Amino acid sequence: MSELKQLSGQDNSFxxxxxxxxxxxxxxxxxxxxxxxxxxxxxxKQVLGYLESRLHLSPLFRSxxxxxxxxxxxxxxxxxxDFDLEYHVRHIALPQPGDWRQLCILIARINARALDLSRPxxxxxxxxxxxxxxxxPPRSFAILHKIHHCVMDGASAVEMQAALHDFSPEPRVxxxxxxxxxxxxPSPVELGLRAYLNALRKPRRxxxxxxxxxxxxxxxxxxxxxERGAVAERKATTRFNGEISQHRVLDSITLDFSEVRAIKxxxxxxxxxxAMLAIVSGALRKYLESIGELPRESLTCGCPIDVRDPSERGxxxxxxxxxxxxxxxxxxxxxxxxxxxxxxxxxxKADAQASDVRIPLEFMxxxxxxxxxxxxxxxxxxxxxxxxxxxILTNVPGTSADLYFAGAQSVxxxxxxxxxxxxxxxxxxxxxxxxxxxxxLLSFWACRDAMPNPDVYRQCILESYEELRDAALAPRDSE
Length: 479
Hints:
About 35% of the residues lie in helices and about 20% in strands.
């Protein structure tokens, strides 16, 4: 049999979630100043040529799903022998006046639509007409890049974005693609045999996994209580933890990275992620309090963590664990809340280190996908919400230098993550560099029914940030 790349159990889980009506692609949004490009303009024809010259840098550009007979096994990835670049790259423009709110609404509408799973799992939109956006140079354009989560996680997305960008307006020399060999897709008989062999291995995998779980619990009981960590799970329920509609809202706020770094530096050993969690915590507290829905208990945030080992770097797909962090929305003072969030994050990391965070991944690998799909559908039909978080925040580190696409300089950029059952609000913190100055962009992606007024939540984020910044940077009386 020829070598084939099969989706992992976790990769396949995103396809199964999509069957519940929740699109499971991730996206990046970037705004480019085309005045830096040769001739001061980037034409759509140039964009197509630029992308075509780099398609071979990642196999994901031409890969599509190939299903086993009767879906008896997880899908495989094969080359699309009928690949059409112009299907995947679209060119649109904002109507006048072309302001920020219009851009967010347009991106929300496009990104709410699921990808065509019969084609390579990505789309790229070039959006012109950005004429009235503060601090964005005139004649700039935006790019929305969608790619399915089943073939890419946040860490892989950073690698792909690096392949699409340069560090100067002059594009780097890309070695042309060697003669591409398109492999014949495996026959139904071959796929059926693979499915049979994989099914034979599953009982042994499940038994080994059960032994590891028992061993882990035994080892955890031997640790001192202070070293066991504490699993943070959702104790409160908010408007963001109910049924999710098909409609979305989006916004992004630009923060000064040096100020975010100064905020985290007020607490010994605190991290940038702690500071971002504290900002989100303050914003949620303000938003829910303003509508009389702030729970007495602290909200909990799910934070994705990359658990790849060195051999899995650059392989695409997903190797993601989660840790739950108490947001301490029950603490009113912004600095006290930052201290409490940092302490909660330390506990969450201790729990991740004390436990085997790869066990859930291996569980999805061992259990037949049909069983998992049925379980998810039963939960959805019964209205059971098994997700242990109120919201999610992922931190996507950017590069430490300015980036260019076809000669145009990136001046803003942020990510968008998928909503999952019972969690209708997703935050992404993205660090970028523009003209050698660091920025932190905090974006949110939400169900419109759960958040009908995104402009209010945007203001809550700004107020939370400013309160925390002012409290952190205020001069202190010498002791």
